[in-house]
Design a protein that fits this description.
Layout: H1 2-7, H2 12-26, H3 33-45, E1 71-79, E2 83-92, E3 98-100, E4 105-109, E5 114-115, E6 119-122, E7 128-130, E8 139-144, E9 151-158, E10 161-166
Antiparallel strand pairs: 1-2, 2-8, 3-7, 4-5, 4-9, 6-8, 9-10
Helix pairs in contact: 2-3
């Protein structure tokens, strides 16, 4: 994972993320301090990146338990704090169009508490249809968090699809 991150290729963070996901499956989710530190580095590098593992030539065989999301999130800007703000684009890698707005997002903290957006801006203010293989316009969601809440991931739920973007 460290060597993948140091490689500097556009897909190196994606490959490092995939390898850590494989390790998480082997270890049944048990994380050591070293694995947590590696996840943080990888997630920092891939925050803006759509984690699509089936890029041709990247990995010989992709595990379906890892490569299961049709909608992919790229966070172009994250402002942490009691009013956490996320500027996001969504890539529709599914087999059909996807319609959503800011209300389809939630933020989950490290204790498992979920928060709905306090407000939505830009492209996420109203429902928008994103065609198969297309990218949404940039939208923003803002969450009001209680003191001490540590965000873990941003989640998007559209119909039966749920996708997550884990934070560093």
């Amino acid at each position: 994972v460290e060597s993948d991150l140091a490689e500097g290729e556009a897909t190196s963070g994606v490959l490092a993320d995939y390898k850590l996901n494989q390790l998480a499956l082997i270890l049944r989710g048990k994380e050591t301090p070293e694995i947590k530190a590696a996840w943080s580095k990888v997630r920092q590098q891939t925050l803006r990146t759509y984690l699509m593992y089936d890029i041709e030539g990247l990995i010989d065989q992709v595990d379906a338990r890892i490569n299961k999301y049709g909608l992919l999130l790229g966070i172009s800007k994250y402002t942490p704090g009691p009013q956490a703000k996320f500027e996001v684009n969504v890539l529709n890698g599914s087999s059909s169009p996807a319609e959503f707005d800011g209300s389809n997002f939630q933020l989950v903290d490290r204790k498992g508490n979920a928060y709905k957006p306090a407000s939505s801006l830009g492209a996420f203010k109203k429902k928008d249809m994103v065609a198969k293989g297309e990218e949404s316009k940039t939208g923003a969601v803002i969450f009001k968090l209680p003191a001490g809440a540590e965000p873990d991931y941003l989640e998007l739920q559209v119909d039966n699809q749920v996708t997550r973007k884990y934070l560093p």
